Amino acid sequence: MFQLSKEPGGRFIEMTENYRSSRLVVGAANDFVKSVRYRFKTAPILSMSDDDGEVRITRHISKYMFLPVADDIMKRGNGTTCILTQTNEEAVVMLALLNGRGVKAKLIQSLDGLRFCNLMEIRYFMKNVESKKQSPLIADEVWEEAKQKTFSKYAMSKSLQYVRRCVEMFEQTNRAKYYSDLREFVFESSVEDFCDVSDAEVVVSTVHKSKGREFDNVYMLISDKFNHTDDLLRRYYVGITRAKHNLYIHTNGDVFDSIHNCQRIMDSHQYAVPEKIVLQLSHKDVYLDYFKYSKQEVLALRSGDELTYKAPYLCCTPTGKAIARLSQSMIDKLAKWETKGYNVASASVRFIVAWKSKNAAKEEKELAVLLADLMLRKNGIDNINHNI
Questions:
Q1: pLDDT by residue (tens digit) across 226-253?
Q2: Which of 91, 150, 243, 262 is surrounded by the most beta carbons within 10 Å?
Q3: Which are the contacts of 220, defined by CB distance < 8 A and separation ≥ 6?
Q4: What is the pTM of this model?
């Protein structure tokens, strides 16, 4: 069915039939979207499914909702399942919690400021491909040799999975491989484009990165600490519409009160933060200029390698040499976690990326920047009222 609207010089056509989502999920989306202003589409969506599905909204009084969401996930039904969070930090906490319970979960997150083309592993692959350029077309033997060298050199790197997936996808869409096409493909791609979640029992994603994906069961973890701007409400709407059959929302606010035909539960329990959390460092969490003195040591590491944390430094475990220094904002953040009873228990390499200041001279060489994961463990102090 199409909704037609006559406008000067043309027609506005809305597609209003939905064949993939259950009736209750579509109804929830229709109810919620009424609170979003300045929408281009106005006609309600019609579910053409024979499945009623389930929509359940749990209203918490607790600030932290990680544990009840994890408990809910353990009772999940058949089909694909996804947890949607608002922030990267929430997504990583959920991932660690589920993995600790034996659930095979994988993460798709917003990686702002991190470009796939700057990953050490893809840089090495591209260097090998382009080193033997003799024509616009990449010779098969050059391609295969670059793959073999890269896959061998970085066999122990956890980041190699993204390069493998990139290579596979490029091969699938390009029978004839041109250097220009490869450069554009790599330059325009992001790390999350190559997250293979096909074998995951549960996918954990930020709402921001869920667009274009769909799952049988969607769980949303929505804290009420954010201003409900139209942009944020549109993201919530996108999250709701990712569900095909069942939608389960955990929130401590009233933003979903406009959804009518659903099951509602009040949970008056207070929940603590999980015993283990993981902080994923970004460029802003380290002193970038410090890497001028540790380029070779950083390049010798692989994604997944263990590091030693000696505040405020990250050190190469075998040698004890400091190779990265945390920024003051990150040190302050760790101090706040310490007031909640958490200390850094371990650290590991997540990504190694090329970086160069925008103000650097053209001839200045790029630095090798180490982005790490810090695993924090609770030491027994339970003080859930502090703000992160």
A1: 778 888 999 999 999 999 999 999 999 9
A2: 243
A3: 83, 84, 207, 236, 239, 240, 247, 248, 249, 250, 251
A4: 0.82
